[in-house]
Structure formats: structure tokens, C-alpha cells
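During the reporting period the student researcher (J.K.) took over the structure-prediction task from the postdoctoral fellow and processed the backlog of single-chain submissions. One of the processed entries is reproduced below for the supervisory committee.
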Amino acid sequence: MDDLAFWVSYLTNGRHLNWYISFQYTLYAALLGGTFALLFGLAGASLRNSSNSILRLIGAGYTNMVRGIPDVLFFLFFPLAFEQLVELFLAQGACAPGEGTPGAWPPCPAANWYLGTWEYLLLASVSLGIVYGAFTANVISGALKAVPRGQLEAARAFGFSRSQVLWRFHIRQMWIYALPGLSNCWLLLIKATSLLSLLQITDIVRGANLLGAPNFSRSAGLIHGDWRWAYYLALLVFYILVTWLSERGFAALTRWASRGMAVAGRS
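J.K. obtained the following C-alpha cells:
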């Protein structure tokens, strides 16, 4: 009974409750980041398949360049650059001439933009969207090209307008080719949520490292040794569960996208 009371009190203390809450930050960042990635991906794919050469160049530059830049650079650059840009605009009206210390940032205390966890979480989600939107754009662009041209020409021959052919036939059939690649992008995005601690967000990885480290108390001495392996094992189970649920979700989406379609190579 004493051991049970210890584990109940230990696993329900304030530090552990905060760690349990941080799991929602990971899920929110993944869902928001996935939404932004899909939006950026659709925009990038549209640019790459545009009839305008300048727009095609912009789309190709986005998908090719962003895919080669490490995720951590976007996590450090975009939120910091956006925060300082906002403070620069605030300083134009909040700072008096000559106020503040030269070379200091923000230019004056009144221009300081204080960000909380949810603001940083939104910036992190946009960063994820920018990075994995490039991968998504590449997947969607390839899927659009995989749709048989004969079916699109047949739709035009039946009198459908250009927009109707795009939305009712081209994009509708594109998903069956895009979903396998989008599934990979989604799983990569989930793994990248482990970088949330770079934006001062107490994410599950940083929390596991802190909770599992050797814990000393002046009154009780050593409470436990290095238990990080146990917390990392819990994270392993969590990510495996999220991966399993994601695979089930994408399998359901694939069945939905396949309804009424004859796809080459499928019986």
C-alpha cells in the first residue's frame, strides 16, 4: 500500500500534471501545422502547375529550396523574425525620438511584444506549415500530373467548364494519388513537434527529460535516480499510438477517395 500511495502521489504531483497537459500542445501543433502545410502545399502546387512562367518559378523555388533547409532553422528564424517585425511596427508609434538604448531590442520598452505559450504555439504551427507545405506541394503537384489526361479531355468534351473540370475531375481524382505521400508528410510533421521546446513551449520531450533526470530533495535526499529511459519509453508508446491512429485515418481517407474510381494498378 505504501508503494501504491507513493506512485499515486508521485505521478499526480504538479510537475507531472503540467507534463500531461503539454501533450495537448504537441497535438495542437501537429493539427494546426498539418492544416497550414496542406494550405501551403495546395498554393505551392497551384503555382508549380500555373501557365505563368513567373508563378511556376516561384512555386518551384518554394518547394525546392524549403525542402533542403533544416526544420530547426525555420523554428528559430520565422518566429523570431516575425516577432521583431511586429515590434518594429509597434516602435514607430510607441517610441519617442531618442528613447531607448542604442543597439538594444526592442527599441523601447513600450514596443515589447510579450508572447505567451499559445502565441508561440501558433508561430510554431506556421513554421511547420511552411516547411512541410513544401513537401506537400511536391506531392500534390505530382499527383495532379498523375491523373490521366484522357479523363480530363473527356470531361471537356462533355461540355464541362474549365473550373468544373478542375474541381470535379482533376482535384477529385488527385487525392487517390496524393494520399500515400501526404501520409508520409504528416508523420514527418508529427516527429518535428519535438522541436517545440525551442520556442519556450514546455513540450513532452523537454518535460520527459526534466522529470526523468535524477531528483534530489534536501529533506528526503535522492528521490529517484536517472529515470529518463522510462519517460522516453512512454513517449515512444505515445508516438506509436499516434502513428497507428494516423495510418488508420489515412486508410479511411483512401477508401473514401477510391469510391467510384478506376485507378491503374488497382483491382
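The committee noted the following: The CA atoms of residues 76 and 258 lie 40 Å apart.
J.K. will present the remaining backlog at the next meeting.
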